[in-house]
Amino acid sequence: MKILGLDYGHKRIGLAFADELGVAYPLQAAVEGDFEAKIAHIGREISARRPDKLLVGYPYNMDGSASEKMREVDEFIKTLKQRFGLEVETSDERLSSYQAESDLAAFSAKRKNSKSVAARKKYRRTGDLDSRAIALVLQDYIDSNPQIWSR
């Protein structure tokens, strides 16, 4: 089973991938200037990696209720299904960006990187943080669904 993970945002769409080994890793985020260019970026990843399904991070509120952004993500999912014809699942993405940023801060501290704030801003701007966040969501999905890897 191969899965492409996506973390939707207006400015950036984080991307991550997991293949038959069941290990998720971040990819270059789609940070192009307009939505169609971001969809084309996703299309190139789909063509290159040939995932069996897509996993989209779903933005619940901290209390588990539906967020306002869910409507946007639902429209994004509809676009993905129409354009690529792949199965699309969702997975709770609460705290994934926070965890990715915390991991980055810990890594910077270990390296005694005095520019850790600047580094975090760069990771946010380039979409690296978004891709790391969806990699965490994707890995959690994999770990929670071991039966999908035994096919």
Notable features of this structure?
5 helices; single chain; Nucleotidyltransferase, domain 5; 5-stranded mixed sheet; 151 residues; alpha/beta
Give a description of the structure.
By secondary structure, this protein is α/β, with parallel strands linked by helices. The protein has a single domain, classed as YqgF/RNase H-like domain (Nucleotidyltransferase, domain 5, 2-Layer Sandwich). 49% of the residues lie in helices and 20% in strands. The chain contains 5 helices and 5 strands; from the N terminus they run E-E-E-H-E-H-E-H-H-H. The chain has helices spanning 35-49, 69-84, 96-110, 116-126, 128-144; strands at 3-7, 13-18, 24-30, 53-58, 87-92. The chain has a 5-stranded mixed sheet with strand order 3-2-1-4-5, sandwiched between helices. Helix 3 (96-110) crosses helix 4 (116-126) and helix 3 (96-110) crosses helix 5 (128-144). The longest helix has 17 residues, at 128-144. The N and C termini lie close together (8 Å). The model is unreliable at 95-100 and 102-111 (pLDDT under 50).
Topology diagram in text:
Layout (H helix, E strand, L loop, with lengths): L2 E5 L5 E6 L5 E7 L4 H15 L3 E6 L10 H16 L2 E6 L3 H15 L5 H11 L1 H17 L7
Parallel strand pairs: 1-4, 4-5
Antiparallel strand pairs: 1-2, 2-3
Helix pairs in contact: 3-4, 3-5
End-to-end CA span: 8 Å
Strand residues, percent: 15-25%
Largest sheet: 5 strands, mixed
What's the gyration radius in Å? 15 Å
How would the global form be characterised? globular
Given this structure, which CATH class is correct? Alpha Beta
CATH topology: Nucleotidyltransferase, domain 5
Q: Ranges with pLDDT <50 over ≥5 residues?
A: 95-100, 102-111
Structural class: alpha/beta
- Give the H and E element order: EEEHEHEHHH
Tally of contiguous helical segments: 5
Give the strand order of the largest sheet, numbering strands 1, 2, ... along the chain.
3-2-1-4-5
